[in-house]
Design a protein that fits this description.
Elements (H helix, E strand, L loop, with lengths): L9 E7 L3 H15 L4 E5 L6 H7 L3 E4 L6 H10 L5 E5 L3 E3 L3 H11 L3 E8 L8 H16 L11 E5 H7 L13 H9 L4 E12 L5 H23 L10 H22 L5 H15 L1 H11 L1 H30 L9
Parallel strand pairs: 1-2, 1-4, 2-3, 6-8
Antiparallel strand pairs: 4-7, 5-8, 6-7
Helix pairs in contact: 1-2, 8-12, 9-10, 9-12, 11-12
Length: 337
């Protein structure tokens, strides 16, 4: 008689840096799902009361002696765990009530599963426009991403611990600060097993975004390191923000913004007509996400989100282009070096 699959043991690992303001909600949700003894908070040199907050919750607390990024913090958490599965939850992400059970079920049902990734939900508590826009954009992109052979996202992502260690964990040397350390890990994990995305595995994101923090994060912590990684590997996956439609939408967005600025400064023909054509083309290329914005937050939000999304696409595409030029024009290293 075949034996019933056994539930894998699971530890929740929360990398923490100056997160005292959000940690109560994050740890309460993690404890509710996994149990107090299965939650590990790794304090990466916080200057606030983060470690004390974690200790009050009675979870295991690992203190790093100096400031470190989330890659190293997660690696340290994994080193202190003996569980079958590691569920990484960021210190500003509140796991839904079914999060842990969904992860356990997935890994119990598929012995060949290496990693499972989730997404933000559609209910960020911060009411600011940019907090809403960034959160909804992330949700939309992840909900439409490929479910199999998926990337990995450490804001809410689970991995089989033995395969995580075999892959070498997160590259904390290359990514000493928050960046694309989880995306880079995904390629190494694929060598050892299936990597999947579960769109119903969700967390509530507590972060407050501003225009400045959005642009800085998108460019310096996402676009630049991601472009460098893709150019080094010579690959351009048709997924997430790199779908074929989005590659075309980026230059269109840049031209649309320039045309609109030109109309505002000097509305002489044929500039208004050109701007109208570009706006209509942009709307057509981005119709699914614009429809999603409007359905979630109303028509006026959708209009503002369209304009903001043009900015996001424009600087993202420009950043990739600049990185590509620098990569292709870089002198080749001398032979034998």
């Amino acid at each position: 008689m075949a034996m019933e699959p056994v539930d894998p043991s699971l530890d929740v690992i929360v990398p923490v840096y100056n997160a005292a303001g959000t940690l109560d909600r994050v740890l309460a949700a993690a404890i509710s799902g996994a149990g107090r003894e299965h939650v590990i908070a790794v304090d990466a040199g916080s200057l606030d009361e983060s470690a004390a907050v974690a200790e009050r919750h009675g979870v295991r607390v690992v203190r790093l002696a100096e400031r470190a990024g989330p890659a190293r913090a997660r690696n340290e958490g994994a080193r202190h765990s003996n569980a079958d599965v590691l569920l990484f939850i960021d210190s500003d992400c509140v796991a839904h009530a079914d999060c842990v059970e969904r992860v356990r079920t997935a890994f119990r049902s598929d012995p060949g599963l290496a990693s499972l990734t989730g997404s933000y939900d559609v209910a960020p508590p911060d009411p600011g426009f940019f907090s809403q826009y960034v959160n909804l954009r992330h949700h939309f992109v992840h909900q439409r991403a490929q479910k199999h052979d998926a990337t990995f996202w450490a804001g809410c992502g689970a991995v089989r611990r033995t395969l995580f260690l075999r892959a070498g964990g997160f590259d904390a040397d290359r990514y000493p600060r928050p960046a694309i350390e989880d995306t880079e890990l995904a390629a190494r994990l694929r060598k050892f097993g299936a990597t999947r995305l579960d769109p119903d595995l969700q967390v509530t994101h507590l972060k407050r975004w501003t225009l400045r923090s959005m642009v800085e994060t998108d460019i310096f912590h996402r676009a630049v390191p991601w472009a460098r990684l893709l150019l080094e590997r010579g690959e351009l996956p048709n997924d997430l923000n790199l779908r074929t439609s989005q590659r075309f939408a980026s230059p269109v967005a840049l031209l649309t913004l320039l045309a609109l600025i030109g109309v505002a400064l000097a509305p002489r023909p044929p500039l208004p007509q050109i701007a109208l054509v570009l706006v209509l083309l942009s709307i057509a290329l981005n119709a699914p996400i614009l429809r999603f914005f409007a359905q979630q937050r109303g028509l006026w939000f959708g209009v503002k989100a369209w304009l903001t999304h043009q900015l996001h696409l424009a600087y993202g595409g420009a950043t990739f282009a600049i990185c590509a030029v620098l990569h292709w024009t870089r002198p080749s290293p001398p032979r034998g070096s």
